[in-house]
Write a structure and sequence with these properties.
- By secondary structure, the chain is an all-alpha fold.
- 86% of the residues lie in helices and 0% in strands.
- It contains 4 helices and no strands.
- It has helices spanning 2-19, 23-33, 39-55, 57-86.
- The longest helix is centred in the C-terminal third of the chain and has 30 residues, at 57-86.
- The chain is flat and about 55 Å long.
């Protein structure tokens, strides 16, 4: 039973990574992944975030706290629970 599931997971992994080729996504997703390393992005994002907090403090703080909580919980669930259970 488990061997069949592992074989299926490997087959699906190979199918997604070899057969689903898209040159647009191959360009966009690495750029999005490394966006935090781009000094131009940081130089633009920090003043925009500060301006948003200054203009709409209550709404901005709520959204920022909600995003931090969502990212923290999803990381906890995926890395600590699912990854350990699935041994991946």
């Amino acid at each position: 039973m488990i061997e069949g599931l592992v074989d299926w997971a490997h087959s699906l992994f190979r199918h997604i990574n070899h057969d689903w080729d898209n040159s647009v996504f191959d360009f966009i997703f690495p750029a999005i992944t490394d966006l935090h390393r781009n000094p131009v992005f940081i130089a633009c994002a920090i003043p925009l975030l500060a301006f948003w907090i200054w203009k709409q403090r209550s709404l901005a703080v709520k959204w920022i706290l909600l995003l931090v909580l969502a990212i923290g919980l999803s990381d906890l669930a995926s890395y600590r629970v699912v990854k350990a259970y699935a041994q991946r």
